[in-house]
Design brief:
CATH superfamily of the domain at 3-70 and 103-180 and 269-335: FAD/NAD(P)-binding domain
Structural class: alpha/beta
CATH class of the domain at 3-70 and 103-180 and 269-335: Alpha Beta
Bound molecules: flavin-adenine dinucleotide
CATH topology of the domain at 3-70 and 103-180 and 269-335: FAD/NAD(P)-binding domain
Distance between the termini: 14 Å
Number of helices: 13
Strand content: 25-35%
Largest sheet: 9 strands, mixed
Radius of gyration: 23 Å
Number of strands: 24
Length: 500
């Protein structure tokens, strides 16, 4: 007998897991299929930002995420002689999202926490050891064929399919979607370690711009530290992974660490030409890849999931037109390109092997040295074809999460719908909660909220479910604009939209 779901997700990396969790919270039935049984074992993401922590909060895993992470400190670029070329701040107790600006973390720990969360959601079916094979699109559903560990082929149906199946994405291949290549391609050895002693361990994140061996050294979650070493032109992956090679490189740091895992990657910048094909979409590394210098690959994928989840819910549960799904790439593509370009720009600074070019770079950076820089504020959503109130300068920026004196956070006071907050409130619907500023539930945040709204010169704010500002202005105008843009019914059908 065939099985039917609202959404099939292929791939249970961090992006697939976050998407599954958000769709499950919306009451949708989800099949998340993953060909492996364990989370990815090799070193990958070490940094995530405040927006991602807010998503973890929404999924109910903030405390688990904190247990596997620590706030990120400064990010320093130094030359071969150890002189400071640039130092960027990444700290800050409360960023705009109500969490620290940035965290360093251990990816497998958080992936396991995400999977544990999914296991507690009754509408989510997780199938490990099940590999996507092919898909067929029909008028109102997709058919997916998948192979289990024993080689048996199973058939599933769903209203939508999302490929969160990583860099080699079989879903992207099946949809015949090409990749745009930013022509950055540098091989690096990545080494995660477990320190036996904290002696000599750097307390900040470092890019050592040494043309003899460009090197990255960053914190991770508690009890771990990472080094990344660029391969030199005559070195092979096999050679640098051979016993003793890493240990020899680490000897130069005079630290007492145990190597936990290591891998060689080619750092590159790629972006998919199309992120949607009818009822099939792609997200995360399946849609884009970037060098890790800005620590934004997974963050971008999780932003994809947060952007797509509420739009799938709007289409499946609240009567929105499927065309709303086209706003997903329209908004996310610009953000991802910003981060790819930022990461490649940083990479070009770091990955310089020519000593003359490096000396010139060092001199230029020292001449305009900024010891307290902010990393460029890039990565906001694109505006062409996007789902924001037109002509509103604040639309598309992050709605701040206020934190009360007792530590309570604003998002936890409300629910997962869009919010229209103004002086009087109004009748809520399936996709939109209308709430007055003086509603008791907002009492701990009222002063901050009122001051913020006054500062924005608006009577009301409409906040999308991904916590980007839809618009600021008069409540009636925002409401009408939301209905027109989202195309959702004024009276929501809070149920779920399972097929047939
Ligand atoms: C060295 C390094 C450092 C990085 N540092 C950072 C950082 O600091 N911050 C950051 O934000 N990002 C960082 N990244 C990027 C980040 O790790 C990735 O962007 C992120 O893991 C991608 O998540 P994903 O869920 O899209 O894909 P993946 O984690 O690759 O998950 C895809 C899943 O799909 C499964 N799959 C594939 N094919 C099939 C199939 N046919 N059927 C079923 N399942 C399938 C795979 O088994 C896999 O589990 C780094 C990457 C590297 C390599």
């Amino acid at each position: 007998m065939r099985e039917r779901f609202d959404v099939i997700i292929v791939g249970l990396g961090p992006v697939g897991a976050v998407l599954a969790g958000l769709l499950g919270q919306a009451g949708l039935t989800v099949l998340a299929m993953e060909r492996s049984h364990e989370v990815y074992p090799l070193p990958r993401a070490a940094h995530f930002d405040h927006e991602i922590m807010r998503v973890f909060q929404r999924l109910g895993i903030a405390s688990e995420a904190l247990a596997h992470s620590r706030p990120a400190g400064a990010y320093e670029f130094r030359n071969a002689g150890g002189e400071l070329l640039m130092s960027a701040r990444r700290g800050g107790e409360h960023g705009i999202s109500g969490w620290a600006q940035s965290y360093m973390f251990n990816q497998p720990g958080i992936e396991r926490a995400l999977r544990a969360r999914l296991a507690a959601m009754p509408r989510i079916t997780v199938r490990l050891g099940l590999a996507f094979q092919s898909l067929e699109q029909h008028g109102d559903h997709v058919v997916v064929m998948a192979k289990d560990d024993g080689g048996a082929i199973e058939r599933f149906e769903a209203r939508y399919l999302v490929g969160c199946d990583g860099a080699w994405s079989p879903v992207r291949e099946a949809l015949n979607i090409g990749l745009e290549d930013y022509r950055f391609d540098e091989p690096w050895l990545v080494v995660d370690t477990i320190p036996r002693s904290s002696a000599n361990l750097p307390v900040v994140n470092l890019q050592i711009c040494d043309p003899a061996r460009p090197t990255t050294c960053v914190l991770m979650g508690p009890g771990r530290h990472r080094w990344e070493f660029m391969l030199l032109p005559d070195e092979s992956a096999d050679a640098v992974l051979a016993p003793g090679f890493v240990e020899a490189l680490l000897a130069g740091w005079d630290v007492d660490v145990e190597v936990e895992r290591k891998a060689v990657y080619r750092f590159h910048g790629l972006i998919a030409e199309r992120w949607r094909d009818g009822r099939a979409l792609i997200a995360g590394d399946a849609a884009h890849q970037m060098p890790p210098f800005a620590g934004q690959g997974m963050c971008s994928g999780i932003r994809d999931a947060a952007n797509l989840a509420w739009k799938l819910e709007a289409v499946l549960c609240h009567g929105a037109d499927a065309a709303m799904l086209d706003t997903y790439q329209a908004e996310r593509d610009r953000s991802v390109r910003d981060y790819i370009e930022l990461a490649i720009g940083m990479g070009r600074v770091v990955c310089t092997l020519d000593p003359t070019v490096a000396a010139q770079r060092d001199a230029e950076m020292m001449a305009r040295r900024d010891t307290d820089a902010s990393l460029p504020a890039v990565g906001g959503p694109g505006r062409d074809g996007a789902l924001f109130a037109p002509g509103d300068a604040a639309a598309g920026s992050i709605f701040p999460q206020f934190v009360a004196a007792d530590g309570a956070r604003f998002d936890d006071a409300l629910d997962a719908r869009a919010w229209l907050i103004d002086g009087v409130g109004g009748v809520s619907s399936g996709d939109l909660r209308r709430i007055a500023i003086d509603d008791p539930v907002l009492a701990p945040f009222r002063d901050d909220l009122a001051a913020w709204l006054a500062g924005m010169d608006g009577q009301a704010v409409l906040v999308r479910p991904d916590r980007y500002i839809f618009g600021i202005g008069a409540a009636a105008d925002l409401h009408a604009c939301w209905r027109a843009a989202a195309g959702t019914a004024a009276v929501g059908t809070a149920g779920q939209g399972a097929v047939g």
